[in-house]
Amino acid sequence: MLEPVNVAIIYYSATGTVHALARAAAEGAEKAGAHVRLRKVAEVAPPEAISANPAWAEHVRDTADVAEARLDDLEWADAVLFGTPTRFGNPAGQLRAFLDTTGPLWFQGKLADKVYSAFTASNTAHGGQESTLLALGNTFYHWGGIIVPPGYTDPVQFQSGNPYGTSHVAGDGPPGEVVLRAARHQARRVVDTAASLKAGRAA
Ligand SMILES: Cc1cc2nc3c(=O)[nH]c(=O)nc-3n(C[C@H](O)[C@H](O)[C@H](O)COP(=O)(O)O)c2cc1C
């Protein structure tokens, strides 16, 4: 009997949108039988920037109990889903700051051969979601990762519509059922792929 797949969901969220997607991904991964660690990356913005934005400050308070991501979470995981807001068409600096601490693991080859996938949010419909996800993909290539996008592998993808990774337009309001289903589907697909790889390697 194989060990369940270990999935880390590592995200940054300033005002809660990406956090909602991360929680849906965690649900999807758990339902698919994985062991899940939901982790936020450390905040690097100055406290005065956070307190100047009530929604940001509120979200920091609301998620105070979410554990911070550590390198050990990456080492533990068979698969990692990363979530980030779109910032000028790129991942948030907070997530990049975490990724930029992974050099020692990368150097030892410990990030290779894992499954990676990503999700995002932006304020506007054409505000750079795909460029953000593709930019994160550059890091997965360098790690020697196995990138598993959702593609159009479930009917929900024809409604939510981003084959690169679940994405939400935050300017339209909080994530609704369609995008949350897409996040659950993406996570399930990641778990299924990682489980096949794990079983194949154990055989
Ligand atoms: C510095 C900065 C840059 C941003 N750049 C973009 C952008 O390029 N396109 C866009 O549509 N939204 C942009 N946004 C809006 C964020 O993507 C949006 O607030 C975020 O996805 C909401 O996610 P969160 O609630 O998890 O923080 C930007 C926001 C900030 C603060």
TrEMBL record:
It comes from the Bacteria. Transmembrane segments: none annotated. Residues 7-191 form the Flavodoxin-like domain. One of its GO terms (molecular function) is FMN binding. GO terms for cellular component: membrane. Belongs to the WrbA family. This is Trp repressor-binding protein WrbA.
